[in-house]
Specification:
- This protein is an alpha/beta fold.
- 41% of the residues lie in helices and 13% in strands.
- It has 12 helices and 12 strands.
- The strands form 3 sheets. Strands 1-12-11-10-9-8 form a 6-stranded parallel beta sheet, sandwiched between helices.
- Strand 2, helix 3 and strand 3 form a beta-alpha-beta unit.
- Helix 1 crosses helix 3 and helix 6 crosses helix 8.
Length: 341
């Protein structure tokens, strides 16, 4: 692995990555001096072994893939192309499995069956003896041991309290939030404590310069930022989110000294006033239906909250630039030319 490690420690590659990190950090600091839209879309390493049985070997193969095929993708003068290893076992059901759900693979993706235990009785897992969590710890440690200083490491999907609660209980948790909010809150807090512990554990393993949350290649933030998944917030009212969920989301983002991002993919605009008030929320990521509401987010959020947009038919790049003039905007898509603001 010595030749591979030499590439993964190449100072010119690290310098180029850090150049783009600095430009992205400038955007988060409110600087838009060069007149160009900021674009990013990276590449993801591929391992051939089974990551559920041989995480160390899978990580090693990913690093070889980067060294042999993908490292030079960072040498792009038009946009940020982060190069990443992401250990995404069990997809969006990673935390569900840790919390005791029956998670299974079918028709090309992961699913889970709802818990049969009553809401309000969820127990915190023993992470030191949890097989799923320990698999991901093994992958993270192998990345640090063998990975060099250049690639980024993307975490499994650690999601958010509401996302996980809906995965575990379906509509029953939503009904409980209305009928008995104190009881629903018990499990939401248990989930949040678990998420916080897991984020802290990975922060203790992966160097900050290389640690990224889920979708590390397309939602890349400067070092020191976290991420939550807000998909299910479209199912609840502004009042329910503000009163029962927002502080839990802030607690997860608060693990990171700079706060972080919420991912949105549906109709969530009822929460813009709450998002605006959340001190640890520094970015929103919009794709699919959510991207169509870019103007509402741009006008409704704080001046220091960045917006990541995955362009789509309802929000092409040109329209996004017209709305924002490039201010506070990250275009999460590969571009071939330079977009001027």
């Amino acid at each position: 692995m010595s030749a591979i490690r030499e590439i993964l420690d190449d100072e010119s590659l690290i310098a180029k990555r850090d150049f783009w990190f600095e430009k992205l950090s400038d955007l988060f600091r409110g600087k838009y001096a060069d007149g160009k839209a900021f674009a990013l879309n990276g590449v993801l390493a591929v391992g051939k072994s089974d990551p559920y049985r041989e995480p160390e070997k899978w990580v090693e193969e990913c690093l070889i893939d980067i060294a042999e095929n993908k490292a030079t993708a960072i040498l792009n003068d038009k946009m940020f192309v982060p190069v990443c290893v992401e250990y995404g076992i069990y997809g969006v059901h990673y935390i569900d499995k840790i919390l005791g759900a029956d998670v299974y693979f079918q028709d090309g993706q992961w699913y889970n069956r709802y818990l049969t235990t009553p809401i309000g009785e969820l127990k915190e897992p023993d992470l030191d003896h949890d097989e799923t969590f320990q698999l991901s710890v093994r992958a993270a440690k192998k990345f640090v041991e063998a990975g060099g200083k250049f690639p980024l490491f993307g975490l499994p999907t650690i999601a958010s309290a509401l996302n996980i609660a809906v995965n575990l209980y379906g509509q029953e948790i939503l009904m409980e939030m209305i009928a008995d909010p104190e009881n629903a809150r018990k499990d939401l807090e248990t989930i949040t404590r678990t998420l916080v512990k897991i984020h802290k554990a990975f922060r203790g393993i992966i160097p900050q310069r290389q640690l990224q949350p889920v979708i590390s290649w397309n939602r890349t933030q400067p070092p020191g930022y976290g991420q939550i998944c807000g998909c299910t917030t479209q199912l609840i009212s502004q009042d329910l989110y503000r009163e029962l969920i927002s502080d839990l989301d802030e607690a997860v983002l608060g693990v990171y000294e700079n706060g972080g991002m919420i991912h949105l993919c549906g109709s969530h605009t009822q929460h813009i006033p709450t998002f605006r008030s959340m001190k640890t929320l520094k970015a929103v990521q919009l794709n699919d239906r959510a991207a169509e509401d870019l103007e509402a987010y741009f006008n409704g959020l704080r001046e220091d909250q960045i917006i990541y947009v995955n362009p789509c038919a309802g929000m092409p790049i040109e329209k996004a630039l017209k709305i924002t003039k490039g201010k506070r905007l990250v275009i999460a898509e590969t571009i071939t030319g330079e977009y001027r603001i």
